[in-house]
Amino acid sequence: MTRHIIAPQRRHNGKAASPLPSARGRHQFALKADGGTVRFAARTSGYRRKNPIARRPHNAPPTRETGPRVNERIRSPEIRLIGAEGENVGVVTPARAMEMAEQAGLDLVEISPNADPPVCKIMDFGKFKYEQQKRESEARKKQKIIEVKEVKFRPNTDTHDYDVKMRNVTRFLENGDKVKVTLRFRGREMAHQNLGRELLERVATDIEGLGKVENMPKMEGRQMVMMIGPAK
């Protein structure tokens, strides 16, 4: 027989208080007799877990493994095996290839997963990964970020200013950067765009062998622009 008892609310300073400090709402207790053992079951409403369980978002993609498959991760029924010395062993099962790798104290690494059957090689995977990371690091060091430097001219640039600006153009090109040559017109100078074009053509002639014109002179608003890239 089970009797359900509604626990009365306590009062504190004339106000109703929760039956338990850690819970809010109405508490229901079920008193059960089971073979002489008395059990109490409590149920609360409005209770919240302090530390919610972390769950992966519903639409989040599953975590994917990166890098080549190694040893037990190779699942193909058959593979084409290359030995530790580079010899072509032939088509074998991954289990047989694993035995050979273990005997040599090395790893079985899948190097061509899209081949039919996949191609695997017996090698020291730790050493292979280290050398691969070293090559990638050296390649990143050799990569140069090409910047675009701007050199500004005026339609009436005199000889001295022209030589100074051309030294800057030469220096930028020698460093492997691109140069954006701009020539701005003011007021009535817009009526003499031919003078600006002749000046930029002179710049293009003076950098022959060191740079090449990528974008011929063209108007952008009130300025004429020409892009020069390094010759190498």
TrEMBL record:
Protein name per its UniProtKB record: Translation initiation factor IF-3
A Pfam family assignment: IF3_C
Region of interest: Disordered: 1-24, 48-69
GO cellular component: cytosol; membrane
Gene Ontology BP terms: ribosome disassembly
Gene: infC
General function of this protein: IF-3 binds to the 30S ribosomal subunit and shifts the equilibrium between 70S ribosomes and their 50S and 30S subunits in favor of the free subunits, thus enhancing the availability of 30S subunits on which protein synthesis initiation begins.
UniProt source species: Rhodophyticola porphyridii
Subunit structure, interactors included: Monomer.
